Amino acid sequence: MIRILVDADACPVKDEIYKVAWRHEVRVIIVSNSPIRIPAHPLIERVVVSDGFDAADDWIAEQVDGDAIAISADILLADRCLKADAGAVLAPNGKPFTTASIGSAVATRAIMADLRAGGDVVGGPPPFSKTDRSRFLSALDETVVRLKRIASQRNPG
Fold it and tell me: Is the pTM here over 0.85, yes or no?
């Protein structure tokens, strides 16, 4: 059964996730370190994990499989999900993390962390935009359709 696992503490596209889930009747699991308000809907579930370091990431990485779409801006979680054979991993800006792209993303993250630690880089990612939101909505919709098609081919009838 296709489901969407959301690293929700700082996720800016939860409303878009709900829209796609309702349209395609796909289950959504919102994972966070503290309670987050979710719509009262049978397809939407909230999982609150401990406030331990990476507790939400650990939970998601343990639950992900080929029928799961993981949503996270966390590159290291994306890497873990891909290694666990997630059906798909999307960043909140709609860009997919893939086995072909994750290595360079992890390396870039490490380089940027080193530069920031040395005081050489100031600032962060560009502000989240309407274009990012729109790209995410389209990418998630396409991903759900693709995974549903794969699931129906595995289990015809």
Answer: yes
Give the domain CATH number at 84: 3.40.50
Q: What is the DSSP letter of 34?
A: S
Count other Cβ atoms within 10 Å, centred on residue 60.
29
In angstroms and rounded to an integer, the radius of gyration of the C-alpha atoms of the chain is 16
Number of domains present in the structure of the chain: 1
Amino acid at 123: G
* Calpha distance 25→43 (Å, rounded): 7
pLDDT digits (tens, 9 = 90+) for 11-41: 999 999 999 999 999 999 999 999 999 999 9
- Give yes or no for a contact between 5 and 31, defined as CB atoms under 8 angstroms apart: yes
| Alpha helices (H) in the chain, listed in sequence order | 14-24, 55-63, 75-83, 102-117, 130-154
Alpha carbon distances (Å) from 20 to 63, 79, 137, 147: 21, 24, 7, 13
